[in-house]
Amino acid sequence: MMYGPTHRELQERFDTTQLADTMEAVIVSPTINDDQRLFIEARDYFYLSTVDAEGWPTVSYKGGPKGMLHVEDDTTIVFPSYDGNGMYLSLGNLAADDKVGLLLMDFETPQRLRIQARASLDDSPERLAMFPGAQTVVVLAIEKVFPNCARYIHPHTRVETSAYVPAEDGSQPMPSWKRIDVMQPVPRLTFGTSTLVEGIDGVFLGPSDLAADMGFLGRPDAPEVREAVLEITRRIVASGKAAGVLTLDPAEQRACRDLGANFIATEVDAMLFARTMRAAAAGAKAHLG
What we know:
TIM Barrel; 289 residues; alpha+beta; single chain; 3-stranded parallel β-sheet; 24% strand; 7-stranded antiparallel β-sheet; elongated; 10 helices; Pnp Oxidase, Chain A; 2 domains
């Protein structure tokens, strides 16, 4: 049954009880029919709703190649989860609460389809092989499928496929925002293979940030942090990428320079500003007596 007391109250208020009952009986189904299968598998994007542990809903746009939604049978759909922003909001939510909703749109026809299902994750090689570039695969056990009236859908024309959709071999370009050093965990970049990833042209190290990441918050001069800075710089240079360091320590600056660092920041703008202001204030006091 789709309707609870609050739904019934509104249906009675606006005199749509009979219409609502008819709609549920006619369009809502626990299985996917042949026409719906064709529509589902022709989508190259959809909207996924999940709920977090505190009960807050969220809706996420999911895009990919046509066929990213694969209907295995009349009660099962699978789709890939590709590289994203690293927050894993949707996957984390559905791993805790498996109830999800999907909204499938066609803005050109126009038409839309709603799906309610229970979701689970499948990392098996067989599933992953279905979707090159996928990190994991979401399996949906269908509860309800039903179309919606399309009269308020504003027609749009599709222009092109996103350049970031994984290719047939699973490869995809790295977005520019992920190349920013603050977005890249330095130990992972250095001691793994990420510095060799195409699109990352250089890595800029901040010993203070690295110290916090290593458990030495506020202690960039800790011996372990200094050693890590030099080792990271050495490996970045060896990989053929540009290495940069922000450090206020002259000895560390010289050591990084000697290892081949391409650029070294020796001051922080806030500190420069404060130092300049103090000097200006002292000069003014001396001048004014």
